[in-house]
Amino acid sequence: MENLLVAVPDTIPGAAPDEDAAVEHARSFLHALGVPCDSPGTVDTPRRMAEAYAALLSAPEFDPTTFPNDECYDELVIVKDIPVRSVCEHHFLPFTGVAHVGYLPGDRILGLSKFARVVEMFARQPQVQERLTVQIADWLVESLAPRGVGVVIEAEHLCMTLRGVQAAGTSTSTSALRGLLRERPQSRAEFLAVLQR
Ligand SMILES: [Zn+2]
Question: Residue 191 in contact with residue 158, Cβ under 8 Å?
Fold first, then answer.
């Protein structure tokens, strides 16, 4: 069983966050916004804020081992409704939704549970939805050399629904298609049809 070496993208924070500094700066930030954090309910809010953001920005490590496609499986593999939890890099507010990932295997396959790990690896950093979609697709292309890859993300951005235009319930869709899922209309249609079900 061959291990494929996969470089973890350097945009993922590698160093442990300085939690004490994050707590103090969260306190200053809230103070500057007129939130003094001196009531029983708010005295620990800076610490909780810091911990919440640290959690949103750290993905658990995973083993991206791929396997030979011994069964010569050559039809579409689609993993639907993978949770997406990320942070918009423009407003530092969360966006959440689902990712649907499909691929046409070549010589290598990836364990099905690993698709959620790949999504998480790229989601747990300051992001824009378009880049997140492309990064997942390109990682799969580089790691699996599949015949085709499709990634669709549907997400709600709190920066849209809580502020600005306040378009509650608005969902944003992005997609990245590679290889045969981009070039062959039949494969593309099959992938998109499965997502409608
Ligand atoms: Zn935003």
Answer: no
